[in-house]
Amino acid sequence: MKKALLLLFFCVVYGLAVAGCPTGPVDEKSNDAATKDEVVQKDETKDEPKTEPAAEPNAEPAAEPKDEPAAEPSTEPAAEPNTEPAVEPSTEPTAEPSTEPAAEPSAEPTADAGTEVVPEGTNTEGTTTDSNPNAQPDPNAATQITSVRGGTAGDITKAAVTFIKAKVGSDPEGFIVQATKTGPAIFVEADLSTAGVKVGDIVSFKADTIGDAQGRKHVTKYSGLTVDASGYDVKQLVQDVTSSTDLVSALDDYESELVTFKGKVSGDVTGAGGGYKAAQVDTTGITGNAGLKLRLPETIADAIGFAKGCDVELVHGPMWRYTTTAQPQTNDKANVKLSNCPKVTVTKASATSATTVVITFSGAIDNTSLSASGGQFSFDNGLTASAAKLLTPTTVEVTTGTQDGTKTYKVTVDAGLKDVSGQGIDGTNNTASFTGYKANALLLINEVNHIVKDGCDLVELLVTQGGSMKDITVNYRGSNKLTFTDFTVKKDDLIVVHFDAGDAKCNTAGIGNETKSINEIPKASEGTNYDTAYDWYTTSSGPASTSGTLSLKDAGGNYIDAMMF
């Protein structure tokens, strides 16, 4: 027996090709216990071709003697000679030949240096989603999400978290889950500080209550949330909707799902709820439809120069919605790309003090191109600049000499000032005129009547400090509804703002605004006027019946007053 063991030892370690050395698997009769375990492993590995090739367990074992635990044969009791792993000396531990978990073959991807290991989750583009095969959504979760979207409480098991929606403005915070590329998907309202999920997590939970918000289906309460795996590449779920023609007409079929598209910003960029901006976009499949808008956090929109006329690509983001308006969006600056944008122009200049003027641009300015000396800004009528600084991505404050409140000045901006795309300011539209500083009036939002018959909403303003109304704006949900011209009011004057002036019911005579006195246009001439207040009209729609923020801002964009309701 000792001689047989020594012979086996030298055959395995030194690869001796001499008489008596085995050339194949040890005969079952001489090593029955070991081969039973090995047979089980071979059968299991047939379904896992990426792991150790079970068909050749003894393929050149002598090539890797350093892994052979049999190098110390004297430590094995002679009474148990069958524990020597002669079948696979380079891979199986001597003491426990059957402890290798055949159910997890991916744990040993380097078992065969001559075989290319393909990780689980690799797609056709070669992007590895995760080395953990468990980080995959269960397609059956799509059926569960469909049921929940239909209003039925129930489990959602192993769905992928595709989007984290932080709290911005009045939008709820939470996350979106989806399991298959064509959806469905659903938004889950959640306190992100306690939910502890991230994009790429595979999660399970019970949807306890389901609700509707602005046309969207939400899970409003959930329980039993678990993270089953992490690291899934959500780009595998992204649908390219560039050519889709039904994004608006079949919005229910796309809601909350991950999408990508290329198109052009075809509409003006306006406020789209607190903290957001949006603009109509045209794609190959949809053009001229105000029901399709790209929606971005205003910090991102301003930073990238989001503007009408730009070519745009949404790399990926969820299909949000506001009632019947499709609003694909993203909270990640890297997921939206702009190109071929029009050059930035000067849109307005306003004096904000006796020695400062704020220049407003149509797009975001590259702060690194702005000279702190103010030398890129020149004025007429003897006014000079001494400093400049960026206030917001689209506004620059210039320090000037003392302005004369009775004079009008023109500012010209040098083309050396560039936008965030690297283009210089448009040389054909680089000037603006403004009146020297006059102290602005201060006002309070005194009364709001926003559920009026025929939609003729009203907002009453009370003057608390007399002064100029020039460039004071009325805003709702971040969108400018009205800008006042230069007229002077005194303390305790009232101003009534009339909305929907394009409707004859709201502006019967269509005469216009009052700037000279509170009864400049008496009620006898304009039936909707008030003879005790300055009446001003805007064609913008009034505040919605749902919650929102109404605000007043001065020429520099500073808040004068605000009201939430």
Notes on the structure:
This protein is mostly beta strands and 565 residues long. It has four domains: 139-236, OB fold (Dihydrolipoamide Acetyltransferase, E2P) (Beta Barrel), CATH 2.40.50; 238-339, Beta Barrel (OB fold (Dihydrolipoamide Acetyltransferase, E2P)); 346-435, Immunoglobulin-like (Sandwich); 442-564, Sandwich (Immunoglobulin-like), CATH 2.60.40.1260. It has five helices and 30 strands. It has helices spanning 2-14, 32-45, 140-149, 192-195, 298-304, and strands at 154-165, 174-178, 185-189, 202-213, 216-229, 239-240, 258-265, 270-271, 276-283, 293-297, 311-322, 325-328, 336-339, 346-353, 356-361, 377-379, 385-392, 395-400, 408-413, 431-435, 442-449, 458-465, 467-468, 473-476, 479-483, 488-489, 494-498, 534-537, 549-553, 559-564. Strands 6, 7, 8, 9, 10, 11, 12 and 13 form an eight-stranded mixed sheet that branches. A five-stranded mixed β-barrel has the order 1-2-3-5-4. It has a four-stranded antiparallel sheet with strand order 14-15-18-17, with no helix packed on it. The longest helix has 14 residues, at 32-45. The chain starts with a helix and ends with a strand. The model is unreliable at 24-131 (pLDDT under 50).
